[in-house]
Amino acid sequence: xxxxxxxxxxxxxxxxxxxxxxxxxxxxxxxxxxxxxxxxxxxxxxxxxxxxxxxxxxxxxxxxxxxxxxxxxxxxxxxxxxxxxxxxxxxxxxxxxxxxxxxxxxxxxxxxxxxxxxxxxxxxxxxxxxxxxxxxxxxxxxxxxxxxxxxxxxxxxxx
Length: 159
Hints:
Blueprint: E1 2-7, H1 13-29, E2 36-38, E3 44-46, E4 52-58, E5 61-67, E6 71-77, H2 87-90, H3 93-101, H4 105-123, E7 142-144, E8 147-153
Helix pairs in contact: 3-4
């Protein structure tokens, strides 16, 4: 698995993400990345398969991961506040218990948010009906470049 980061200026995190993806692919495989197609559920994939990727951008930062397995990545600025009213809507009972007991509930909710977004990207199903069907544990994110980052990789999957 390869993780990359780049700072960008301007409105297009999407474009910055694709550029970073191209650079990572070239560095890893020594050739330009293959074309990208959008799957039935909206998840982007390389034509020909074999290598999976995920991109996330947030206010001036873009992250990208390449993996041999389906992968999801999400990043948020560590200063971004997730509205506390969302906790009951998106957290499973186990997650809500961790959130309620957290020393810093604001940070805990942000961690769960990026974990859920990354998980939804890894499965390709999006967030509809997904958020409360998971049971993540706090402490499974990383801090990088002022952002909270989650990477979820699925080893066993059906295509």
